[in-house]
């Protein structure tokens, strides 16, 4: 989802009796006289696309340089995540821009024509699909690293490249099924305030099917975030445990055994866990308000509680804007949180200590670790 274009237009105007005449609009709503500003929207679209392309290039270079079996599943999932972010950013941004440009032609009047139903269904399906895919892929990455750190001996057997590819296909199929149900007339997509995007209805009078689809979307998204947090917390605790254990080892032989028994001490694991932790934080901050808002809205629908529509629409739009930044921030995790960048940062913070060492003993232990994985 891109940073959607917004204006001060009303949501919709079904007929001329519901709309004020031009004179009234011009005298009471001077903001409608000014064409909407596109600068920020163009900037975020360009930034998001370039960021994802840069991060994909970094991952491709990393894979070609390392070719380590232990990191191959992680790189595949990370690449799928960035491809999903890039496609969602460009496609939904283009669809929103098309609607917004159509509205600019009528910026001097209050009459707003809703997008065609087919177009709205396509737009809404893309919003759901490209919203779920990054969440599901991020959760899969967290589970993969949790297995790799907590069960390093079983990791090569459990997490094979074939299974990772099947997981990516399963994630794509799951998101596609949920996004495609309204296209099969199971539920519906409707224009959302201010008329520049389409999504599952969550604020107006809902049908049971619409409510269930919105509930499934929000629940699935929150479950994936929870799985990511739990998996990364478990992996982080394992890293700390191994670090404290290694500090207690004094002799050279004991240090070699400690390095051999704990893959989490290697820079490869530290790099991947740092990236995963950042991805999880970004996803939780960006997506939680949107998902929780949908969950609360559907719950209040089931309870029969009605709220002011305009206030709810503005809150939903604000939550969506925050969620759209997830696709822009995700690639910067891979751009900034690389070992080269982390090593330089640690050198600045602690000049006398090098966490990511390249000593001979490290290389020897690392070769042993590669053999295990």
Automatic annotation (TrEMBL):
Superkingdom to which the source organism belongs: Eukaryota
Provide a Gene Ontology MF annotation, just one: thromboxane receptor activity
Q: Which Gene3D superfamilies match?
A: Rhodopsin 7-helix transmembrane proteins (1.20.1070.10)
Name of one Pfam family that matches: 7tm_1
- Where, per UniProt, does this protein localize? Cell membrane
What InterPro entries does this protein map onto?
Answer: GPCR_Rhodpsn, GPCR_Rhodpsn_7TM, Prostanoid_rcpt, Thbox_rcpt
| Membrane-spanning intervals of the chain | 42-62, 74-102, 122-143, 164-184, 276-296
The record's annotation in SUPFAM superfamilies points to:
Family A G protein-coupled receptor-like
Describe its membrane topology.
Multi-pass membrane protein
Instruction: Name it.
Output: Thromboxane A2 receptor
Species name: Cyprinus carpio carpio
């Amino acid at each position: 989802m891109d940073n959607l274009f917004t204006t001060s237009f009303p949501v919709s105007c079904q007929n001329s009796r519901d709309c004020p005449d031009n004179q009234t609009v011009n005298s009471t709503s001077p903001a409608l006289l000014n064409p909407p500003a596109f600068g920020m929207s163009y900037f975020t679209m360009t930034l998001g696309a370039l960021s994802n392309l840069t991060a994909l290039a970094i991952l491709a270079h990393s894979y070609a340089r390392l070719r380590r079996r232990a990191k191959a599943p992680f790189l595949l999932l990370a690449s799928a995540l960035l491809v999903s972010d890039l496609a969602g950013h460009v496609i939904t941004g283009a669809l929103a821009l098309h609607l917004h440009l159509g509205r600019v032609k009528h910026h001097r009047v209050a009459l707003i024509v809703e997008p065609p139903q087919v177009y709205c269904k396509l737009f809404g399906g893309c919003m759901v699909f490209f919203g779920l895919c990054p969440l599901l892929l991020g959760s899969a990455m967290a589970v993969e690293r949790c297995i790799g750190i907590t069960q390093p001996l079983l990791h090569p057997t459990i997490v094979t490249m074939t299974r990772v590819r099947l997981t990516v296909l399963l994630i794509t199929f799951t998101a596609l099924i949920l996004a495609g149900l309204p296209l099969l007339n199971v539920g519906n997509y409707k224009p959302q305030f201010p008329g520049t995007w389409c999504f599952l209805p969550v604020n107006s009078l809902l049908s049971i099917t619409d409510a269930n689809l919105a509930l499934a979307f929000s629940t699935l998204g929150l479950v994936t975030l929870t799985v990511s947090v739990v998996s990364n917390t478990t992996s982080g605790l394992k890293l700390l445990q191994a670090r404290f254990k290694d500090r207690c080892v004094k002799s050279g032989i004991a240090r070699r055994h400690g390095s051999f028994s704990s893959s989490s001490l290697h820079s490869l694991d530290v790099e991947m866990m740092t990236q995963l932790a950042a991805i999880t934080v970004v996803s939780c901050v960006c997506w939680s308000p949107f998902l929780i808002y949908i969950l609360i809205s559907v719950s209040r629908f089931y309870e029969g509680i009605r709220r002011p529509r305009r206030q709810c629409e503005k809150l939903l739009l604000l939550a969506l804007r925050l969620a759209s930044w997830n696709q822009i921030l995700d690639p910067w995790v891979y751009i900034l949180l690389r070992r080269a960048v982390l090593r330089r940062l640690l050198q600045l913070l602690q000049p006398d200590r090098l966490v990511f060492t390249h000593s001979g003993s490290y290389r020897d232990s690392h070769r042993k670790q590669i053999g295990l994985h």
